[in-house]
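Deviation from plan, reported transparently: pyridoxal-5'-phosphate complex.
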Amino acid sequence: MPEVDPNIVVYFNGQYLALRDAHVGILTHALHYGTGVFEGIRAYWNEDDGQLYLFRAVEHYERWKQNCGILRIDVPLTAEHLCEVTIELLRRNAFRTSVYVRPIAFKSAERVGVSTDAHDSFAVIALPFGEYLHSDKGLHAGVSSWRRIEDNAIPARAKICGAYVNSALASDDARRSGFDEAILLNESGHVAEGATCNIFMVRKGALITPPVTENVLEGITRDSIIELAQRELGLSVAERPVDRSELYVCDELFLTGTAVGVAPVVRVDHRPVREGSIGAITRDVRRLYFDAALGRLRAYRKWIIPVRPPQQEAEPASVAEVAVV
Ligand SMILES: Cc1ncc(COP(=O)(O)O)c(C=O)c1O
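Because the crystal trials were delayed, the predicted structure below was used instead.
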């Protein structure tokens, strides 16, 4: 990963400021106890259009605010207002490349003691970001010996900072063992998801993915793939528990997420998925997803917000204005 430029503009405590000037104290509650909730949003640079498209930002901010509610963290802006902040942030940074946006809200009291109070802060950071997993030739995934966290311990459906220890342990183990990504099972032994992504398999021409009650993050890419597969490819999609051994006998396998996009898996636990090459349905789904994210599909322009104003000197438009394209 390239070094992060300390001069990039971030949004913190209600202000736009340089990353080098945005600090938290060493006693901050979230640093000690993991009491933060983050989000990950992509903006895709389309060279032909000379435009940066923010992908499903309203849905991401709505999920973030709901999940902040689990930890009773208050984010005092609406999802639409947060989109406007993000557009302004991207414009101030004048990015002409694909970007990852990282909102984070956290318990900010500086003291010792695990019980929470009403001191909350949030920030939005945007960084130039290319491919997260180099998946063009397909990935080798390994089933982790770490189990996915249970809903009654730390809800996996929210991107709670402390919960990502689970992903970090699995991901580190997987990479040290020579895999590209970890697949986690839940305590029932069913497939849950990847360390940073949801999972889909293809069997007999249908898509199958674990339901949201199997300790998975309710992925927005997952939701996009389900809609694209059903509406554009006429595929049936089943949300049902998945056994580990189904990964070894399925026809195709792929991972989905804001960071990974749609990443084909061609080997699992040293076994090839079918012929060990990327399957036709995975290719179609992947192409559709990136076409939608890059603004090439008219029917899915509802998912994107163009960031750059028609004339660079124009005032930032409101989300209501820019969302209708
Ligand atoms: C554990 C986990 N599962 C799934 C996902 C995919 O979610 P989304 O598609 O909303 O990015 C992510 C990534 O954010 C994740 O961290």
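The pocket of pyridoxal-5'-phosphate is lined by residues 40, 167, 193, 196-198, 217, 219-222, 256-258 (CB under 6 Å). We consider this an acceptable substitute for the interim report.
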